[in-house]
What does this fold into?
Amino acid sequence: MRRHIALRMLAHDRATTAGAVLGVVAIIFLVGQQLAVLNGLFTYMSVLVDHSGADIWITSEGTDNINSAGDLPTRYVDRLIGLDDIAWAEPVVSGAGFLKRKDAQFQPVRVVGVRPPRMAGGPWDYEVGDNSVLLDHDAVTVDWLDRRELGDPEIGDVLEINGQRCRVAAFTRGARGFSGTLVFTNEKKAREVGGVPDDRCSSILVKLRPGANPAAALARIRSLLPRAAATPTPELSANTRLFYVTQTGIGSSFGFSTLIGVVVGVVIIILTMYATVLNRQRDFAVFRALGARRRDIRVIVLYQALFIGFIGILLGFFLLAGFLFGTSGSRLPSFMPLWIPPVHALLTLGLCVVGSALAIRRAVRIEPASAFR
Amino acid sequence: MEPVIRLEGVARDFWDGVRRRRVLQPTDLEFWPGELTVLAGPSGSGKTTLLTIMGLVLAPSAGRVWVAGEEVTGLSEDALATVRLKRFGFVFQSAGLVPALSALDNALAGRSIQSDRVAPGLRERALELFDELGIADYARAMPTQLSGGQQQRVAIARALLGEPAVLLCDEPTSALDVDSSRVVLDTLKRLARDPKRGVVLVTHDPRVFPYADRLVKIEDGRIASDTKDKAEG
Amino acid sequence: MSVQPGVESVAALRKQLPELVERVNEKFRVDERFECGPIPCELAVTVEDLQYRFGRTLLAGYEFGLPDWLAPEFVGLVGPVMARGARAEFPRAMLDAWLVALRTTLPSATGDELALPLAELRAGLPGQWPADEPASLAGDAGEFFRLIRERRRREAAAFLARRAGGGDPSSLFDELVVPALARVGELWARNRLSAAEEHGATEVCRYAVLRVLDSVEPGPRTGVRALVACAPGEEHELGAEMVAGLVELAGGEVFFIGRSAPEAEIVAAARRFEPAVALLSSTTVATLPGLRDLARALRAALPDLRLVAGGSAAVLARARLAADCDRVVRTAAEGQTAVLELAR
It folds into this structure.
């Protein structure tokens, strides 16, 4: 009966219930949306690392994120391929450039050159074309989502990057960098565009042989290349993300927005639930007089909080799904790892319970004698 | 025969913001089953205070209380709540129905407030009571759809569902018209005929007096008169 | 009676009596459905009326400060109802109704004062109705009672005439007639005689009384003029009628008005008849205020008029009536003597 009473009271006080549900929706949607965008940005931050197919990245010493790596001697590649545990090692040449659009405007891009024929560190998904197009000397790829930014180039269009002739040969999908629009090309073109001499490269990708001991291999590489950093791919990916979160305003900005979402939601929940209890003081007094213990009153309000949470979470996720659906394939990065929704829901339910604490406190303090006044 | 409620030296003080004020002087009273006792008195006389103390809703500042032979003085709030649930039926001024619940749910809520489920057979018993009280057609209605008299009868059904030893009614007719008031009073009078149950009714409505088996008049926090001799039971 | 209510309380009772009776009846209409069950139908009117009579009795008892009157009056009023099948709870319910009505109609202190004697009465109510069986009449009174009960008119008259033996029958009235009449009343109260039988017996008794009065040669005319009347509301007239007959036998001229005439008409009759003495009869406490008011009205109309009060209630209220009446008499013979003495 307590559950039934709780639900009927909520259904009866539709306006205040809607208010409290709105608070939950605010938490779920605002926080969820922030998390989705943050996750989307995460994928951009380390996009090159995550899709390289390499086990270990060799970068300049002291590199804490791939987007700010210095350069390395290219000969390190030759040193590495001599090791037993290593299946292959490929250099990646990366440089900044300005792409001249068809309308003669310039757009900063990041040119990533990969070595044929393996094309390690190159594009991993194509809207139009494939890796083979990069065999052509002038060929560059442009991401499907960056086309507008780059002046709507078509396949076969010839453009200039840093005054060097380039031809759009393929459209990639999801190959978008965090610190600039990514343009892939072959190693040679990248050196031309970026002015990178033949004996230098930005990083070296290493693939271990199957069955190799990664820790031993890593130690071996580190002893072999004392002036470079050898980092396992997942670690470099994480470091890169951590760098952006901690060293730029992104972390605090998202954290703040998320906190605001939580605070706004919790405040709405607290106020509306408290208001509900205030409006229903007489009902609670009647229940108390009829024989409800304090714990029964607590249970009723708690049921209300959980129900409000449940409905709000459903609605919030429904909205969030709409948001994710609407932004998928758009320029707004959003990505929701599968573990987030259940955790988010549970935490929000917890917030509802916390938010109802004040209301519960008020409700159990209602004197049964007031039913007689 | 055992009194359903026994009060011994029960008194109540209130803090009025400036000083402690005694609103109920030390009072000895016994209430018997099979009787409709009317507690009458002007407003502010302390009659509702007495009723709430009898109903274990308000703790007395002094004195001892027995319900159905068992002393309940000093029990914890939750234990008192359980005694209320098991022994008392309450009928409030203006019915005190919960607007969010249907008439039937209101009736069931009284007995089932300490659990999440309704005891088997309780619903059927509630419907029987609705039938006896002439409100069977309104079981699904919401309180706002009921007249004052119908609401009060729902409240009586709620109070009776637990087969209480005592029915405590606070001004149950003050908001009712003549006809509704008569129906409600007839019902209470009939219930008081049950030799296992006592009915205590607080009022200053003169329409109620003819229904009294016993009249206890309260004035200035004291029993001014009692039509029943203390010695008899 | 432990406490006599104060003057203000009694005045309040007098003022509120109609409302009180209405409230008692209202409570009875409720209780009838729940408490006492239906009252036997032949008594339905009586029970409603009973409350009015009890209210007037209560008022009179308090006004006249009577000693030990309430219990017998209550038994006298309620006994016949109980004997006719009212349920055992009736007397207690009736007193409860009065206690509730007094305390809800009047201010607390007044209500309490007036209720106290009732509460005492309630506490001491007999467990059984009737409480006791009256001793049966023996001797001549018993024989006369048997004759009037059996409505043997001629035999009753002859029996009385034989006992009078042509002399003054006043002692016969007090020794035979009054006890026999009282016995009739007792049996009626116990439902051993129906109202019809009681009225029949009373009429036969009256016939015998008048016959025996007529059988005696009246004395010479003395010029004494006496008015004999029952107090307003008083239904028992045979006692007064016997005194009237005895005064006539003694040579007086009597205007016998009989039972329950209105005060104004009795006064008007007195103005026309100009009696020297008026004898007023009251046998029930309820009629005492009426007797007192009548006495005062007669005194006001005829300042020289001498007043005699008689009847069982008047005797009970002897002390308070002393201010308004010259004499209070117990028996028919005393009545005759008083009238004749005062007329001189």
Q: What stands out?
A: The interface with chain B takes residues 1-5, 8-9, 11-13, 280, 282-283, 286-296, 299, 367-369, 371-373 of chain A (CB under 8 Å). The mean pLDDT of chain A is 87.
